[in-house]
Design brief:
The protein is of the alpha+beta class and about 525 residues long. Helix content is about 40%, strand content about 15%. The protein contains 22 helices and 20 strands.
């Protein structure tokens, strides 16, 4: 959950393992038409792997695009992810946007109002392979502004990451069953806190943990919010949009989290630690139940560190708790992935067609090379389509644009997450099996809200601060839940209704409400 609420929050797409490497609509044999004369375009992107830097000047992909399309691409990579949006804004202020670039949803209306973004509508039909692979038609309303597609929106290729994890060995040590309901969860948290589940004779374990990020947002309690239908930023009910922060569900969820605090089952450091500190706690072996990222937990580095600190420890993915009315959700997920902007200058100067041909090539003949690198050098592929990537730095650097090509197919995901590791304690972890298990968990789809605007700029800071501080105070007990109505009034006083009005207007425009 992000209180700054951009058009789209973290997104994930439920993937079918039966998908083949050749997605529907992809033509991997026929190239888009080659230009007779060389056309030059510039592309700005984040790097996929910040540790290895941008590709070399003689990058094989640059030459392949020139040979096959006669398009000379000036690739401009931003190596620090935190610097990307700032770099884009600086270039926009100087009227120096690249021709094609990744764009964050919050930047779309800003650059659009300045007349700096080109309309994708005239060229969408020129890239059928890209559109089919990326789900462009079903998501185009996300980037629609005043009947112009100013951001080309693509389907999220990444699998859902959120999971609930339990120390299975602690359950076994205490003779407990896997919890299913919210009350059972609380009982297990209490046992993990009070009954020395690791048997070390010390009072050093807790049932749950969380964190507070740099914006003051509480994290790590998403499945608790999910049991009350309180995940995300919007509730749509009876054709009416309501900020989730003001709903009864959110109030009930915060009340339950405060109950967890009162019963002492939450790691007392939660309010002063960030996400990495929270992760370190379960790796050290002091937390019995937690929210995590499945790869951060079961990929080699995460699980290896856990096993090293807890030689007899066993982590298991379990379903999120069922709430009092039967609701359950691990976290939010969003089917919206990358958004692409095209400069108005490129559209006006006739380079839009070259951009379209490049994107179609990327999802056609260029797909494997962009996604995996050079065949037989950076990856190998068996006759039945199994791809194995080489992961040394010299190979990673060749795949710095791979996120643009990814579609979340099974062969693609197996290439990225197909490791099976046997640890010194005799436990074998199949990472892809963990991925598959995570996709079965209940989750809250927020895709439909992707086109809605962020907080109005003039009240954004005050709303964020009041909301974040208010929720923290209710959870920690610094403010009694009996003051909920006064808290809601403080949001109204700041002007939260102006956000609701703007969102409702936009929702009507894209057909979300009538």
């Amino acid at each position: 959950r992000r209180r700054t609420f951009i058009f789209v929050i973290f997104a994930v797409f439920l993937l079918l393992p039966q998908l083949a490497l050749a997605s529907p609509g992809r033509n991997t044999d026929a190239n888009p038409e080659r230009f007779q004369e060389t056309v030059s375009i510039s592309i700005m992107s984040r790097v996929q792997s910040s540790e290895v830097g941008p590709p070399p000047d003689d990058w094989f992909l640059k030459q392949a695009i020139l040979d096959e399309l006669n398009i000379d691409v000036d690739f401009q990579f931003v190596t620090l992810d935190d610097e990307y949006d700032r770099t884009l804004q600086t270039r926009a202020a100087a009227n120096d946007l690249p021709d094609l670039f990744q764009i964050s949803p919050i930047s779309v209306p800003i650059l659009g109002e300045q007349g700096l973004l080109g309309d994708w509508t005239p060229i969408i039909e020129q890239m059928p392979t890209f559109n089919a692979a990326k789900g462009v038609d079903e998501l185009k309303s996300i980037g629609l502004v005043d009947d112009q597609i100013l951001a080309l929106t693509t389907r999220n290729p990444s699998p859902f990451k959120g999971i609930v994890v339990v120390r299975q060995d602690w359950l076994d040590n205490l003779g407990l069953e896997v919890p299913t309901t919210l009350d059972e969860y609380l009982a297990v948290m209490k046992a993990f806190t009070e009954q020395d589940p690791d048997g070390n004779g010390r009072n050093d374990t807790y049932g749950w943990t969380g964190s507070v990020n740099s914006d003051g947002i509480i994290a790590g309690f998403q499945p608790i919010l999910g049991t009350f239908g309180a995940l995300g930023d919007w509730q749509l009910q009876d054709n009416t949009l309501t900020p989730m922060a003001t709903t009864d569900g959110r109030r009930e969820a915060l009340t339950f989290i405060n109950k967890m605090m009162q019963q002492g089952v939450v790691d007392p450091d939660w309010s002063s630690q960030g996400g990495e500190d929270q992760r370190l706690k379960w790796k050290q072996g002091t937390i019995g139940l937690m929210v995590e990222d499945w790869c951060a937990t079961f990929c080699l580095q995460g699980y290896g560190e856990f096993v090293a600190a807890n030689p007899t420890g066993v982590l298991t993915i379990i379903d999120p708790p069922l709430g009092p009315t039967g609701l359950s959700s691990t976290n939010i997920f969003n089917q919206v992935g990358m958004q692409l902007g095209m400069s108005q200058q490129a559209a006006s100067d006739g380079r839009a067609e070259a951009i379209a041909r490049f994107l179609d090539w990327m999802e056609g003949p260029g797909y494997e090379r962009i996604a995996f690198g050079q065949p037989d050098l950076d990856y190998t592929k068996t006759a039945d389509g199994l791809i194995t990537q080489k992961i040394e730095p010299e190979h990673l650097i060749q795949r710095q644009l791979c996120g643009w090509a990814y579609n979340g197919t099974e062969p693609e995901l197996r290439a990225r997450y197909g490791s099976v590791t046997e640890y010194p304690n005799g436990e074998t972890i199949d990472v892809y099996a963990a991925l598959e298990r995570s996709q079965l968990l209940a989750k809250t789809d927020i895709t439909q809200f992707g086109a809605l605007p962020p907080y109005p700029a003039e009240i954004s800071a005050d709303l964020q601060r009041t909301d974040n501080q208010g929720e923290f105070n209710f959870v920690s007990g610094a403010r009694p839940i009996a003051e909920w109505d006064a808290y809601i009034q403080s949001l109204n006083d700041i002007g939260i209704q102006t956000w609701v009005d703007a969102a409702t207007e936009r929702a009507r425009e894209v057909g979300l409400v009538t």
